[in-house]
Amino acid sequence: MIPASVKQIILDKSLLVLSFFIASALIFAITIFVYTGNYADENNSLKTQISSISDQAETVMALKKTVDAKEKKIKSGKSRGAVSALERILDKLGLKAAAIKPLDKKKVNNFMEEKADLEIENTDLNSIVNLLYKIENSPVPMKITTAAVKTSFEDPEKFTLKMSVSLLSK
Question: pTM higher than 0.70 for the full model?
Answer without folding.
Answer: no
